[in-house]
């Protein structure tokens, strides 16, 4: 079985209209941005579960910088 890099993981799991990047300083923050966002709450719960399973023991929280449709959010991980 091939292990996906974090970038491959995001390419596979995130809707294609999202731009995902790691914090430029190498911090354990993944920034997810989109003009469209995610309106379907079931799809959002699926993604959150996938993030938690991807980084067990390291996943801390998701911080939204907007209030609607999950268009702009950061995923925080515990530094290893």
What's the short story on this structure?
By secondary structure, this protein is of the alpha+beta class. It is built from 2 helices and 4 strands. Strand 1 and strand 2 form a beta hairpin.
Describe the protein in words.
The chain has 80 residues and is of the alpha+beta class. Helix content is 28%, strand content 26%. The chain contains two helices and four strands. A four-stranded antiparallel beta sheet has the order 1-2-4-3, with helices on one face. A hairpin with a 6-residue loop joins strand 1 and strand 2. The longest helix is centred in the middle third of the chain and has 14 residues, at 41-54. It is globular and about 30 Å long. It starts with 5 loop residues before the first helix and ends with a strand. The mean pLDDT is 87.
């Amino acid at each position: 079985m091939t292990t996906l890099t974090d970038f491959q993981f995001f390419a596979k799991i995130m809707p294609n209209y999202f731009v995902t990047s790691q914090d430029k300083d190498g911090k354990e923050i993944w920034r997810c941005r989109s003009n469209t966002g995610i309106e379907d709450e079931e799809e959002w719960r699926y993604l959150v579960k996938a993030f938690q399973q991807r980084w067990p023991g390291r996943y801390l929280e998701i911080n939204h910088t907007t209030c609607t449709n999950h268009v702009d959010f950061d995923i925080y991980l515990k530094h290893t």
